[in-house]
Design brief:
Number of helices: 11
Mean pLDDT: 94
Strand order of the largest sheet: 8-7-6-9-11-10
Shape: globular
Strand content: 25-35%
Structural class: alpha/beta
Helix content: 25-40%
CATH class of the largest domain: Alpha Beta
Distance between the termini: 10 Å
Radius of gyration: 18 Å
Length: 275
């Protein structure tokens, strides 16, 4: 029998529009994992952010966070593997993005903790909204200078703002092949995000690494957004939720119900029951 790895995106796919997992989804997935389902999730979120939502999932496989930069344990939040920028890449980021303090923050590893560092001062309204949302989180904290943004071990850069302004920054950095770049609209709001990761850190590349490491024969994935297209292309089967973007649906094996209807969990349940 073929050994199959199942991987779902979180926001807009496994999660509801209110940024939660329904109790029904949590219960179904936990029961299926206990029965032998090989399931994990892949997200742009940090494990710290994801676990506030996914902490009830009892997963046996590592979860893929920060768009593939970090493999983590969903139960404990421990970083199992992490990718980092080189010093030369940090220097290039500073050179290419002098606007970084206005629009973004840098995720740096300080020991076992990941901190999101931003320069105190004037920010885009979109970035300020993000910072206000996390104002009580001690790992989201201000620094005084651009240099301090990159303290510890920097592994991820995020910029948030209007489409035109963030799009222009994307054009500045996308040509360099030493890192991965992702530019897309936020799932829940009208703002746009530019995310920069170390080379070979994407959902699809890290999923492929997990598939090979654990000896899976087949890959089945679930998603809703443009950043899910690469993992749809490498999958044996790829399912878009009903609320997915049309651009993703054209790569899908099939279309499920919406993320508000426990569509992924119900599909997984049907798969297990058919075996």
């Amino acid at each position: 029998m073929n050994k199959t790895l199942y991987v779902s995106d979180l926001d807009g796919t496994l999660m509801k529009n209110d940024e939660t997992l329904s109790p029904e989804t949590v219960q179904m997935i936990n029961e299926l994992v206990e029965k032998g389902l090989d399931f994990t999730f892949a997200t742009a979120r940090s494990i710290e952010s994801a676990r506030t939502i996914t902490g009830g999932l009892q997963l046996k496989l590592p979860v893929i966070t920060r768009n593939g930069c970090v493999l983590a344990d969903n139960a404990t939040g421990k970083h199992l593997e992490k990718a980092l920028f080189t010093k030369a890449e940090v220097d290039l980021i500073k050179e290419f993005l002098p606007e970084l303090p206005k629009y973004g923050f840098v995720s740096c590893f300080l020991g076992e903790e990941m901190h999101r560092l931003y320069v105190d001062g004037e920010h885009s309204p979109e970035l300020q909204g993000y910072l206000d949302y996390y104002e009580s989180n001690p790992t989201v904290r201000p620094v005084s200078t651009n240099e301090e943004l990159f303290c510890g071990e920097p592994g991820y850069v995020t910029l948030i703002g209007p489409k035109e302004e963030i799009g222009a920054l994307y054009e500045c950095v996308k040509a360099y092949e030493g890192w991965e770049t992702l530019f897309q609209k936020d799932t829940y709001r009208e703002e746009y995000w530019l995310e920069i990761c170390p080379r070979n850190c994407t959902k699809s590349k890290t999923i492929q690494k997990l598939k090979e490491r654990y000896g899976y024969d087949r890959l089945v994935v679930f998603g809703d957004g443009l950043n899910d297209i690469p993992m749809f292309k490498i999958a044996d089967e790829a399912y878009a939720v009903g609320n997915a973007l049309p651009e993703l649906k054209q790569y899908a094996t099939g279309i499920l119900g919406s993320n508000e209807e426990n569509a992924v969990a119900l599909f997984l349940k049907q798969q297990m029951e058919s075996k």
